[in-house]
Amino acid sequence: MAAVYKSLSKGSSKEDKEADSHAAAERKNKQRVLVLSSRGVTYRHRHLLNDLASMLPHGRKDAKFDSKSKLYQLNELAELYNCNNVLFFEARKGKDLYMWFSKVPNGPTVKFFAQNLHTMEELHFQGNCLKGSRPILSFDGAFESEPYLRVIKEVFMQIFGVPQGARKSKPFIDHVMSFSVADGKIWVRNYEIREVERAKGEAGNDDNGDEPDKKPSKGGPKGGKDTDINLIEIGPRFVLTPIVIQEGAFGGPIIYENKRFISPNKIRAELRKAKAGRHVARMEQQRESLARRKQLGLDDGKPKKEPAGLDTRDLFA
Amino acid sequence: MAKKSATQSPKAGVKPKSQAVNGTSAEKKKDGSRRKSAEQPTVEKMDVDNQEDLEEESSEEEAPEANGKTEEPRSDESSDEDSEGDGDSSDASGDEGIGHIDIEAIDDSESESELDSDDEDQGAKLGKLQDNKDDEEGEDDDEEEEIDVDELEPEDEEDEEQIAAGTRVRQTINNKEALLTSLRRFALDTNPKKVPFAFHQTVVSSKRTEDSIPSVEDDLQRELAFVNQALEAARQGRALLRKEGVPFTRPTDYFAETVRSDETMQKVRAKLVEEATAKKAAAEARKQRDLKKFGKQVQVQKQLERAKQKREALEKINLLKKKRAADGSANLGATEAEDLFDVAVDNELNASGSSKKRKSPGDGKGERSAKRQRKDAKYGFGGKKRFSKSGDAMSSGDLSGFNAKKMKSGSFGGGGGKKKGVKAARPGKSRRKSMAAKR
Lengths: 317, 439
Known about the structure:
The structure holds two protein chains of two kinds.
Chain A: H1 2-24, E1 33-37, H2 43-55, E2 59-61, H3 73-80, E3 85-92, E4 96-103, E5 109-118, E6 136-139, H4 147-160, E7 175-182, E8 185-197, H5 211-214, E9 227-233, E10 237-246, E11 254-257, H6 264-295, H7 312-315
Parallel strand pairs in A: 1-2, 1-3, 6-7
Antiparallel strand pairs in A: 3-4, 4-5, 5-10, 7-8, 8-9, 8-10, 10-11
Chain B: H1 2-7, H2 15-22, H3 27-39, H4 48-61, H5 80-97, H6 103-117, H7 122-136, H8 149-164, H9 176-186, H10 197-200, E1 202-204, H11 219-244, H12 262-328, H13 336-341, H14 343-352, H15 355-362, H16 370-379, H17 393-397, H18 404-408, H19 414-425, H20 429-438
Helix pairs in contact in B: 2-3, 3-4, 3-5, 3-6, 5-6, 12-14
């Protein structure tokens, strides 16, 4: 009975919420990300997942998801955890990693092929940042050029951007996540912002504009007027090739498909084929030369051998 | 271009064909659509030879399908249109697959193929098409890329039909309209006028990063471009956040859990130190090696110098001798004595030669004092001092101390001597008595 009441009251409250959410939609950015992988991830995929999860204080890491075909079940799972984003690592063949970024209740879903994975640990970079500090998200200018890139940008923004006032987030900003488009792929990097003494030469050339504005906001922890920024990479690194964008969450019509993406299976098959092709060509050549020799009467196909009288086998028979 | 597409009717998808017929640019990609439109009486602007060209092209372009981007069993006549359309798309894939990065071009090709796929309801659209043809001629190629959401739904049905007909066309999709609608549905408001920067903390750089990367393969250049992008964003973000009064810098006394644990950082630092020491050691070793090499060089240099000195001295002597020989005929008598002993040569050598040579004899050995010489003669000087007192051939051959008498007289062969000595010393008792009686 209590459960029924609860659900009913919840429903009504949801309506209320929706009503005032329209008013407060501009202000409130509530994101929760369900981070999980499929079965069959390698250690590297797992570490990458952990790295990303550690950077997402608004994330909820879950156990491995069992199915690879019924991804729509992730919607329910996300709902169960009150998540409105899903970051799903799908490993195939124990080597290929596909990353799904999805906005859960009603899409879209972006599927990427992840390459060049390097986890934080294996990259011996010196950078470090607070766990759960809000990153500055840096997007390449190219993200504004194409609709599909704009969608991807928005998805990244909501998944990787830690919402303001997230529960476990820290109050300072000390890292940048950068997303760049190059070669039709999206390259993801993570840098620490380290404040250094500003060199005299560049003092006040680029921050000149906001220098006076900074003074009123001096109530901050540090004056830091004469500091410059430099970036130190933290990791992880990975490269994402967009494959497909679906309109729904793990379903719905496909609204973008990247034709330039060639599945790694195909690439491997081509490689194998090329390798096999070499052998085939060689055999062909051999056969041809044999045939030619036969035609010229040079060879009967099998090498003749004169029985030599002084053969060891004969001598010591 | 997106806005334009939004304004267009759902049937906008067919328009590009008419445009393609007008043949402004990118003819290669459009051949499929052209041929299709040729089937329809209304859109017959293209000339015949052009069409033939295009057909050839498309037949060529079906080859790249082997690289596996589009696969379809093209079989029966009923799917003629579709397969043509597909040839089109494969064309694009063949082009793009080689790997130049013109996104624009890709989109063109993609949209083309999409458009071609939905020509089921072309008949219905033809009237409209003709109407639109005139005013669309001015529009650019990007127009072709647009498709409405409404169009997408019939596409699925078509797919089923195609499957039923035994053909499966893999479409390349870039449904910009749908993408934008979807974006609108879930996008956060990041309008800088309404929303503070701290709300989203997103910076979109003004320029494309790819433009500053000469080659994607070049790691250094690429990473530099990324860092520059991020740095720009960080600067901008910091300025904006400071303006909004959001704390940015972590104070030094604020300790909290970090993303990378202390152990990891320790490891990183240890690795750094190790690298530094290795580098240092390598440099040291190299220096040592160089020094060794240099030392050898010095040695060689010295030897060469010595050889040179010697050569010079010899030359000088020869020269002098020659000169002497030449002069000798003139004043032979005067210098004969000197000539005999080459005193002049010695003088010359001594004069020109190194001062060392002159010094060393003068140092002491040559001029020993008379007293010293006498002492040396008396006590010896130099030579071996060991075994000076042990016997040698001389001493053992020296028989001056030998005395034969002494040798006979005893002290040798102890027993006889003893007897004799005892007897001589004292006779026996009876003997002594008789001796005494005799006396």
